[in-house]
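Figure 3 (text version): structure tokens given as input.
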């Protein structure tokens, strides 16, 4: 919440959605959940707030089939939702197809969004044909440059989790060089948070004063702290941020009221 003496228009409002898993067939389902219908409900709920958004960030696994028609569907859903919108690839995505399609709808791919005195930096941790992630040396160099030359405060967004979240099966496919990301952030005190998707659940931690945050999916959720794959019977979700001019930020996770009809509860994977 804003301080009483802090102008409301000085706060930057950011929406993060993640792991949409769309299909080129608008009726496509992931474990019984119609992923396009879920995304539309999330966007309607998340964007219908008293204060308008300044930026929208989508953190990977946008498409489950990673073909151009699917990214066109996503682009149409995201268009004009916020003044600044950007996306990054997950393990289910094709980064080159993303770059060929999404800018047509005003959606940048792995861009830096400036909301002075803040910046939102989107990283590419995609490895072709792999479920886990890795930040290439060039990507870490780009991040170092943006942090050195950019605005005073930063949030870093990536698909794969740089630290374990307590579930053995998904921790095995996290960000392989997450320690490098954390060390780089530690050298730049203006980094206020590192935020990711991939794990289909809310999670919070901290490293050397930097908040670490995971965000639930716009479709199905994974049950936390499990050795093997299991679904959590929570509805589609998203994360909201309020960025203050003094470097503070507040954040909360929200969910729709209802679980998507047809979700298969006792499944062992997808």
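Below: residues designed for each position.
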């Amino acid at each position: 919440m804003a301080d009483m003496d802090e102008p409301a228009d000085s706060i930057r409002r950011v929406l993060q959605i993640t792991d949409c898993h769309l299909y080129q067939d608008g009726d496509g389902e992931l474990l019984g959940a119609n992923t396009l219908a879920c995304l539309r409900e999330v966007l309607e709920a998340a964007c219908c707030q008293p204060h308008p958004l300044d930026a929208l960030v989508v953190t990977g696994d946008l498409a489950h089939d990673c073909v151009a028609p699917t990214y066109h569907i996503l682009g149409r859903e995201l268009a004009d939702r916020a003044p600044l919108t950007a996306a990054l690839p997950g393990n289910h995505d094709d980064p080159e197809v993303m770059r060929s399609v999404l800018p047509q709808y005003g959606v940048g791919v792995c861009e830096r969004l400036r909301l002075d005195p803040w910046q939102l930096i989107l990283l590419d941790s995609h490895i072709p044909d792999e479920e886990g992630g890795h930040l290439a040396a060039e990507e870490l160099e780009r991040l170092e440059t943006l942090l050195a030359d950019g605005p005073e405060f930063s949030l870093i967004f990536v698909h794969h989790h740089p630290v374990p979240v307590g579930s053995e099966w998904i921790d095995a496919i996290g960000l392989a060089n997450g320690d490098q990301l954390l060390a780089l952030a530690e050298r730049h005190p203006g980094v206020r948070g590192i935020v990711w998707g991939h794990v289909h659940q809310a999670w919070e931690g901290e490293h050397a004063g930097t908040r670490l945050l995971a965000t639930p999916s716009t479709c199905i959720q994974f049950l936390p702290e499990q050795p093997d794959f299991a679904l959590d019977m929570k509805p589609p979700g998203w994360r909201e941020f309020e960025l203050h001019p003094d470097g503070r930020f507040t954040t909360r996770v929200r969910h729709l009221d209802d679980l998507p009809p047809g979700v298969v509860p006792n499944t062992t994977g997808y």
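The chain has a mean pLDDT of 95.
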